[in-house]
Amino acid sequence: MEVELKHLLADLQSLTQSLPDPSHHALLLKIQLRVEDLANLAPVRRSKVEDMSAEVVDSNPYSRLMALQRMGIVENYERIRDFSVAIVGIGGVGSVAAEMLTRCGIGRLLLYDYDKVELANMNRLFFRPDQVGMTKTDAALQTLSDINPDVVLESYTLNITTVTGFETFMSSLKNKSFCPDKQGSGVDLVLSCVDNYEARMAVNQACNELSQTWMESGVSEDAVSGHIQLLIPGETACFACAPPLVVASGVDERTLKREGVCAASLPTTMGVVAGLLVQNTLKLLLGFGQVSPYLGYNSLKDFFPTMQMKPNPQCSNVACLKRQEEYMLAKPTRDAAAKAKMEAEAPSTEEGPLHQDNEWNISVVDDIELDGPDTRSSDVLPEGLTHELPAADEFHEATVGTPVGDTDDLEDLRKQLEAINSS
Amino acid sequence: MEGWDPNTKSTLTQIPLLTTKAGPRDGAAWTQRLKEEYKSLIAYTQMNKSNDNDWFRISAANPQGTRWTGKCWYVYNLLKYEFDLQFDIPVTYPSTAPELELPQLDGKTQKMYRGGKICLTVHFKPLWAKNCPRFGIAHALCLGLAPWLAAEIPILVDSGMIKHKDDTTTTSTES
Asked: Which residues of this protein are catalytic (chain B) (predicted)?
């Protein structure tokens, strides 16, 4: 639009000069002024910012974020520019999470979705009616690059549950061109904001194989409850370790369902869950506060259950078992590091008794236990949480199905089926 | 399995169960799984034919056996309604079931996800989870697609959402 207006002004000027009759000049000048007003109304894109500054001026997009350092919350906020976060599913939760991270000045965002924006999405945040028909990834790229051009954005329009989609997903996570010195994969965190079990299992598979820390999020189909969960392969339960959890809301509800079978949704619940998810993300990446292993949200009772789940040693996911083994092997190193840290912090506690007399024998008891009562194996659940799907039954009898001839050749079998199909 | 009709139950017990837990990324183990899929599909199709209850055709659309296409049909009021049937084998198969698609019915019913994926969440997914890895494609058709067609097609026909291909009273869009 800016370019169009410039051309219009140039045309007006040449018209003014070529007109011999000066009686029209007043009107032409008026038109010119109106066009100039329009040009001033046109949106201004902010330019990229080289370094995050803590300077408190209206024009600094990061002053309020850098103030987190002055407040003693975050030690080094600018580190956020080194982090890459992958968001799978750019729907009601994923798009809002992407906007939050973009506004926080995250280094790089990778966005995955195969869906298009529809008018039926307008009860949620982020997408606008004029984006209807665009792919969610394209629409998100448009908005996010306007909000903060400093963020490196990558978008992938694909379905991660198909064989080819999954391969692209894996290789994009492994790509280290953004930060070549980084340990492990090419991203720091994967956020799952998908609306179905199949896609969650695909994210779980990829993250288990890559030993990639990820967070899962979900909103129930009745729109009144949700959850976030931190998954560290080998250390915490993976998504396949136990049947998925749902926050019981007192109403019969099933979460992990997707849109289409007319699920309800609210911008509020989705906004809350996106907020919880990104808050946990910031705490994990920037190293402040306590990172929640599982946080549920029941909006009807404003109840927020938390829990911690250990991995299942009999998990059906092979990659999960491998990660569990690695985690066990690394235990001595971990213990040594923890001990060294304890000792480094110890001297400050030995400063003589605080009170000379203690008539009532009052003592301070630590309420943080390392393996507190909230750490449990995955089959015991705290109040307010239930399993969504049953676990697979144990089956011992041999069930090999070979009643159809003795052939064991794939091509023969394929032909057999074709023969029956065409008979 | 409570709530299932005795016919479906007896059919189900005759479909050979599978043993190999392998997905499309598992190399040789997937080939083994694919053989078991074929055996169970062949047995199920044969059984349907001999019981005069033939209702689908399905075959692999690529050599890896990760994409399947075919047809399924349902008879209602003595008229046969036929639809294209297609699905991909997900990377996390068999932990997750294939998502069966009837693309011609996309947007015509609430019991369907975008792209024509039929809704299996309530009646089928828990059964699949409980029986992993013994259930295969044939079981998904028998316990997932068949009851869906039986529940949805009469409603779609009665409400006029789909028309029989020989019904020429209005411009026919459905085969």
From this structure: 119 (glycyl thioester intermediate)
**pTM score:** 0.81
**How many angstroms separate the Cα of A7 from the Cα of each of A11, A19, A28, A32, A333?**
6, 18, 15, 12, 68
Is the separation of the CB atoms in A252 and A273 below 8 Å?
no
The burial of B66, by beta-carbon neighbours within 10 Å (0-12 exposed, 13-18 middle, 19 or more buried), is given as buried
- Choose the mutation target among B46, B95, B135 for the interface with A, i.e. most A CBs under 10 Å: B95
Smallest CA-to-CA distance from A211 within A232, A229, A236, A230 is with A232
- The pair of structure tokens assigned to A2 is 């800016």
Say which residue the tokens 């007006």 belong to: A12
Q: Which two tokens stand for residue B47?
A: 């059984």
ipTM above 0.90, yes or no: no
Burial A343-369 (b: 16+ CB within 10 A, else e): eeeeeeeeeeeeeeeeeeeeeeeeeee
Task: Output the six-digit token pair for A284.
Answer: 């994990």
Burial (CB count <10 Å: 0-12, 13-18, 19+), residue A249: buried
Query: pLDDT digit string (tens) for A380-409?
Result: 677 777 777 777 777 655 554 444 456 788
Q: Across the interface, do B16 and A421 touch by the CB < 8 Å criterion? A: no
Q: Residue A258 in contact with residue A196, Cβ under 8 Å?
A: yes
In degrees rounded to 5, what are phi and psi of residue A216? -110, 150
CB-nearest to B96 from A201, A401, A410 is A201
- The 10s digit of each residue's pLDDT in B37-62 is 999 999 999 999 999 999 999 999 99
Please say if A207 is a catalytic residue: no
3-class DSSP state of B162: coil
Give CA–CA dist A198/A88, Å, rounded.
Answer: 13
